[in-house]
Amino acid sequence: MLEILLYGAVTSAVYALLAIGFTLVFGVARVLNLAHGSFYALGAYLTFAFGTRLGLPLFAAGPCAVIAVAGFGVVVERVFVRPLRRSPLAVLLITLAVALLVEQGLFLVFGSEVRNVPAFVAANVSIAHVDLGGQRVLAFVVSLALLAALRTFLLGTRNGAAILAVAQDPEGAQSVGIDPNRTFSLVMALSAGLAAAAGVLVSPFLTVQPTMGLLPMIKAFSIVILGGLGSIPGTLLAALALGYSETAVAYLTSGSYTELVSLVAILLTLVLRPSGFLGARAAM
Amino acid sequence: MARIALLVLLLALLASAPLWIGSGYALSVLVLCNLWAVFAISWDFMSGQTGRENFGHGMFIGTGAYTAALLNLHTVVSPAACLPIAGVAAAAVAVVIGLPTLRLKGPYFALATLAAAAILQRFTIIFWEQMGGEEGLSGLSSLVSSPVGFYYASLAFLVLATGALVTLAASPWGILLRGIRGDEVACDAAGISTTRHKIGALVVSAFVAGVGGAMYAFFQLQAGPYLLGVNTSLSVIIMSYVGGIGTVYGAIGGAFLLTGLGEGLRRFGEYRLLFNSVFLIFIVFFLPRGLFAPLWQRLRRRAETA
Q: What is the distance between the terminal CA atoms of chain A, rounded to a whole angstrom?
């Protein structure tokens, strides 16, 4: 029981980090970014590249990877998404193309074999006789810190207020002098950086391979559907729900059934309450 | 006139292909072209007409392929009888996916189909004892024993499916489906149950793709999880996009071009997949209306003014 409680907390925190950028981008730009999972994969791979190949200490390699991926997010927005925003299909296709481009790029550069990123913290932490591992504790703590920082940024700064304003009413925001394109770039940087941070944090205890981005994309998507597209509190709530139910299923049955949890969550939500837990806009 | 002449010429070329390219590798590439063309037109029938983009068409292709493979390996059903059953199985998946998602507006359908296909692909790994895992199911008996015979079977199926889907798209029902793409609210207001029609279109699309998937399995003599993968679904979308979305027939041109190019680039190995995504980016930016349908329509306009 206690294991489910602790492991579930770690999973939920990482899921929240992963999904919140996805929902922010949708909320601000009405764009579904299918390249979101590749930000996560790039975060993990760049940590591996900076740390193992270039020999940077891991505590420097991780943040460098996050910053590089945030920059990449801005490039994706400027070059690929912005010229096509009028056509939702073109945006979906172009972001999917970027996702595949990244996947194949990683495949060509790093090969298809699984890469190992060493743990940032070697210490073995046990809480009430549950063997948790230092890396999981670190992932949990850093995820919470990043989420708190995001909250402070959104609620306490002018740029954050601009993001919330555009999400609420793009035209209204424009008429009071907020540049929607600049805001969108900023949100893409945030979103990419947060997804990369999730990738960096879990890379030591998950397999790092070129196709690793697809499943997190689907997780982020299920969480966002469950919580309500565009709703930040809904996303956090749904990350908790999915993180805990997956951990519970993994403990009670064999691990391979965890993938089904997100499918069931999506289908149930779409049937029972399409706008999600806290979705503001009616989906019907 | 020019268009009819061109159509007859193309059909004659395809029908006589075994005579001048033999029955070897080149013919098997043409079979692949035919089958991918079936996948692409079936995608375009639903997504091109109604404007609801299906990002998981591979799930219908894969369902058809796996249904045919399971039936062929474990029962005495003849390969030819497997084809319609595979189509029905894919159509059943379409109902299950369509019912909860096609009621909704916005991007839910695209995302839900993407997720559903990925999760079905996981199923083949989770239930590896029944579904063969990464290796898939192999050792199927063949549908038609000679390569030339199989080629004609695939060509006949492509012609039949194109005829049926183009006719459906031109029928009042097709007009209604394009009405949904144009203005769904107006259709609702006119008392049309748009959800039912969208699900109907998805079922037709899935049935054709399922039969095509079964043929694909009988051609390769195996069904693999890659058929359910994102790459399969995306290839189908790219083919329709290159052909010109919403025209049904345009997708055939896209399928032949991309399948042919894909085979031509096979010696570049891993770079081939990279080419696919670069090509997609190029098309989305520079040819938003596609390549083949605009050419065909120009021919028609010229015929009308002449």
A: 39
Helix axes B250-264, B25-43, angle to 10 degrees: 140
Domain that holds residue A170: 9-210
pLDDT of residue B270: 66
Output the pTM of the full model.
0.82
Q: What is the DSSP letter of B244?
A: -
**Chain B contact for A110, CB < 8 A?**
no
Interface subset of B 180-239, CB within 8 angstroms of A? 230-231, 234, 237-238
Q: Could you give the C-alpha distances from B47 to A104, A270, B251, in angstroms and in order? A: 27, 20, 12
For residue range B143-167, list pLDDT tens digits in order: 777 888 899 999 999 999 999 999 9
Residue A92 to residue B273, Cβ atoms within 8 A: no
The number of folded domains in chain A is: 1
Q: A183: Cβ–Cβ under 8 A, 6 or more apart, which residues? A: A28, A159, A162, A163, A166, A173
- Check residue B245 and report its DSSP letter: T
Residue A169 zone, left/alpha/beta (φ > 0; ψ -120 to 50; rest):
beta
Instruction: Answer yes or no: is A130 within a domain.
Output: yes
- Is the pLDDT at A281 greater than 70, yes or no? no
Residue A4 lies in a domain: no
How does pLDDT run across A130-164, given as a tens digit for each residue? Answer: 777 778 888 889 999 999 999 999 999 998 999 88
Strand partners, A208: A115
Decide if B114 and A218 are in contact by the 8 Å CB cutoff: yes
CB contact under 8 A, A90 and B111: no
Q: In this complex, which of B55, B245, B277 lies closest to A101 when CB atoms are compared? A: B277
Is residue A227 situated within a structural domain? no
Residue B4, φ and ψ in degrees, nearest 5: -65, -40
